[in-house]
User: What shape does this take?
Amino acid sequence: MRNGKWISAYAAGAYLFLHLPLLVLAVFSFNASKFTVWEGFSLQWYGQIFENSQLLESTWNSLLIALASTMLATSIGTLCAYGIWKRKAPVLSGSLYLSLVTPEIVTGISLLALFQWSFRFLGLQLGMHTVILAHVAFCLAYVVITVLARLRTFDAALEEAALDLGATPWQAFRLVTLPAILPGVIAAALLAFTVSIDDYVITSLVAGVDSETLPMVVYQMARRGVSPVVNAISTLIVLGLGVLILISERLQR
Amino acid sequence: MNRRLFLLSVPGALAGCMRSRTKRLNVMNWGDYIGATTIRDFEREFQVKVRYGTYDNNEELFGKVMGGNSGWDVVFPTQNRVDPMRQLGLLAPLDHTRLPSLNNLFPRFQKPLWDSSLDWCVPYMWTTSGIAYNARLYHAAPESWKDLWDERARGKLTMLDDVDDVFGAALAKLGYPYNSANPDHLRHAQREIVAQKPLVRAYISTEARDQMVAGDVLIAQTFATTAQLAIDGNADVVYRHPKDPFAVYCDCGVILRESTRTELAHEFLNYTLRPDVSAGIAQTIRTATPNQKAFELLSATARANATLYPPAEVLDRAEWPLPLPPEIVRLRDRLWTEVKAG
Amino acid sequence: MHRLRAWFLAPARLVNLVCFVLPLCIVLAYSLLSRGVYGGVELPWTFDNYRRLFDPLYAGIFLRSLWIAGLSTALCLVLGSPLAWFTARADRKRRNLYLNLVMIPFWTSFLVRTYAWMFLLRDTGLINTALMSVGLISEPLPLLYNNGAVMLGLVYGYLPFLVLPLYTSLEKIDPSMLEAASDLGAKPSTAFWTVVVPMAKPGMRAGSILVFISCIGTYLTPDLLGGSKTIMIGNVVQNQFTAARDWPFGAACSLVLMGLVMLFLRSDEL
Assistant: This one.
């Protein structure tokens, strides 16, 4: 049961659709003009990346925040999905869904209000920790929903068999269920990473003095026009992460 | 929860301690709104470390600093937010003895409407709203806002995605003040905007720049600084100040009351008032400096650029948008929502 | 088992409490307060913000948002399902690679991605130029700044939200089950309806919910690809917290939106 010709052709088309804008922005990262009008080949934008400390620092922050919040959200969310799958937790799952429905600006403003108010007593300031916390919170629902979709196709009898054979509940989870739902967990982590690295509205509100992210820098350029430097750094990020993925694929084989 | 927050904040606190040996200043400004080396030069000269952040609209700035513990020292709101910020107690008064370079400003900017003796803010950069058009491809040179209601502009016209300026242009077209707070004027203006909507290709702000360069959009309501960038990319683009009233906006440096580094903050504001610094910034970001001494440093062509520096008699027609009463803001938002939903 | 489950849920409960439930209480309070002169909120308490929502203007905007979000979700299902199927059926070693290929474009900034689409769609853009140079059209097609462009942007932006959960369900289908079905003489369509669809359901449901919810709250796509000529409920909310400086009304709007969407989703068990 392999993929047939038609479905493979369709998938190729779909990938083209998904990657077309990526190609466009990669091409424009080599444009001599700063406008979206082709004027000739140039590497000037790549050169400018390294002169722009704000851009470099914010990229680093973005990657760090996305990585940390993906790891936290995926572990917390997977455990949570398992718990919900075992027995419904209507209040928790309801409020997770509700957190998805909340418009971003509302989440951002209310989180900011909460942080500002409570930090006055705690003597803390906004920073990386508030951004990571906010990201974990909004990634959580994506993780839970994705992992649950996988768990719902998992046969609970397998786990019961493990328990009957004398496994502790933790062992049954770790050795039987978790490996079986791993594709779901990986997909959830990918989703969380993507949502986190691209978030602007919430991040910009809860970010502090030291935690500017790349989307913040990009959006803030928007009033005066986004510079092709952003295309250049986006291309580098995609290439860098792409190579990392390829390497990890090779290593797995 | 507290423990997690605590644990997460430990690295930040450590980093903070390590940095505190050199003096620090936290400056937040509009995105892409400073010279390439301004901050570095300031750091070097004053032996300090500047944390430079950016924001993309006044409301984002407001939301952040309203709590009074944002961590920023110097920010740059637009003129119509200065007085609200002062009324909310967010601003620290300026000490003019620490700002000797204030005298470099044009007289017009030394006694502005919104802060008549500059007790709270230092004008930083300014720009106007007007009409950009493609002189080669568009059939006629627009003279006044009513030319944005020209049937022949259909599909080639964009308006700013900004309630102040779309209503401003319609009000000015009707002969009302650009910044009118009269509900009848606003309702009348809304009818004009509804009538114009079929001609409008899009309500966009900076995105108009590339489309003017590419020739998709032939006539647009834009800010002078956006138009200037488009002109740099396509010499056919021309920017005009209409014969009616138009808006002029000035972003101003202010010191937040929460700041514990007001001395250094004053140094920074004074630094932005230096002629060479201000001229450098204005040249890099392609906008107008309010600083007369800086203006005099510019090349003759730059000084004669009527896009950025309209002659005095043109600038006399301009209006400074100032804060509107809340019920008028609410009415205008509702009228604008009706336009968009229609 | 119960104790373990409680421990499993505890971290999520904690994060949810601090980062959602408490802020939600703040939003609720905001929605019952009066607007501050320059943004923010002030006393006195009032129901006025909810009363103002009973207005055909906002009802119309809400219905249009529902329609656009629903249609985009349906399109995502139609376009995304084959891709999820392809990924799930691929060689086991390649699955993660294909999955990553779906996500990679989204590791760039939303804004530059959208600008790339604007370049593709505008009159002098790639698509129109290409079509005109091969002589298929003589006048540029109006591809940008209409509802079609908004829908395209939504489908593009949220397709991964459908593909990933659906993939996780489909991946579970054992090829031998399908082979067994056909060995036993089942027609491919029968095998599809009896084996594939029941397995795909949880993923389709999860994916559709993610796409639908994301679409209904969106505000930037209608602004950038629709040229702000239409307005969705997300724009109304966004606007109250920015240009209109009416936080209480924005809070009330968003709570009503959340309530209505939850009613809509209730048929799905959570």
